User: Fold this.
Amino acid sequence: MRSTGFSFVAPLLVLMVVAFNLPILYMLGLAFWEKGRGFTLEHYEGLVEAPVYLRVLGNTMRIPVIATLANVIIGYPLAHWMRGLQNRARLVAIALVVLPFWVSILVRTYAWIVVLGNGGLVNRALQWLGLTDAPVSFLYNELGVTIGMANVLLPFLVLPLFAAMIRIDDRLMQAAASLGASPRTIFWKIYFPLTLPALAAGTLLVFILCLGFYVTPAILGGGRVPMISNLLDTLINQIPRWEQASAISTVLLIVTLAIFAAYRRLDRKASL
Amino acid sequence: MIGGSPWTRRALATAGILGLVFLTVPILVVIPMSFSSAKALTFPPPGFSLRWYDAFFGSPQWMDAMWTSTFVALISSVAALLLGGLAAYGLRRGSFAGRDWAEGNFMAPLIVPTIIVAIALYLGLAKIGLLGSLVGLVVAHTLLSVPLVMMVMGVAIREFDPRIEQVAWSLGASWRYTVWKVMLPNLAPSVFAAWTFAFIGSFDEVIVTSFIAGRYDTVPKKMFTELILEVNPTITAVATLLIGLTVLALAAVTVILARAGKLKQTIV
Assistant:
């Protein structure tokens, strides 16, 4: 095979190798290194033994699972509803989904302090409705972090799901209806299975992004709901234990890449 | 559309609208708050004032952060556009060993958790003594913007018929003429979109910046530090300005892509 086009790629390749691949390799290597003694596995042993790491790991798994589930429950009907809209309304809906996607994550996280705070919109609505006397605390706990994360990641699920839904041919459903299938049968036996690969791919994507979340737990968790990223921040910036941080990063990287490989397979299926 | 009873349809519409409200509420709440006259975060605001905008534009620290952000975003987005655009061309038109690997590697900063990129760059830059330097910051933002550029330019170049280039060549056009008079006019809308996405991406970047910027403050980094320390309404003004910037940029991209008839391929 004749090799063409490489010279166009080379400048970026040099940048990526020097500024991206090498630092990551260096970090991976650091996790297996102890000053003066060379190769070691003790930083990984430290991971398993310290209960604080296990607690953080628990948070890092539990919160993304809940946030991802919330995303599916909110996102699927939203995407499905958008599919049925007429042109202009559909464009407005798309714009409203795309815009938050590009607005700074800090802005979107910050706003929840106003909405969910003790004197915030939600609490005053709850009190006005007489549902509660004392303000419900949404902030600086797991609930707040989960709401904030679900909000930030919703466009990542809705956009690919919507793209897959509008590719489904209406005539499939019409054919089923003319053969006497009930709307419920049509939805569960025809429509839903066709959206499933995109739903699964979107879910995995959202989950991956959840795993590395840093800003939202830091702001809405108020330091009380540490996730892996916040732990890493502490290990790098506050009590410098770079080797330990490198070991944790390695684990997070491997988990992420494994889930991403699964996502790629599903995504290819979804776009067929 | 699948029929279903009117009741089902009404339930679906309610769910959809609630979903949109959930998505947009944060943005809709921040804007009026920034014009509040109150010191505390109360909604709805008790009165109108521009005091938080005064506080923002009157603060040397915020203005410094603004300049650093703009400088880094400008240089890194142009660098990402040049390097990423060339690479996208090489990947789409060329064939060489390791092409898929190279493409995967260019997209990787989007998939690898940003916190890992931040830590790797922190360790790497510390090793070579560039931690807390503008150079380090610009390089980091460039590589984070590369995937955004690749996504837009990759599609645009694939959709651009290679025969048009070949015709220009065969008619004796120099490569410079082909690039300036044949390719760029066709690709211009996508180039603008890619540059805008790279600029916004860099302007909003907070995690890597917080780790490696040292004494430099960017707007998001300063917002983040202030949010952790205390809730100061000046941030609502900054947030509103950022929302305004994003809306303007996206509107410009939409109009330019729509005029060129390329909106659909870039967004979906």
Observations:
- Chain B has one domain: 55-267.
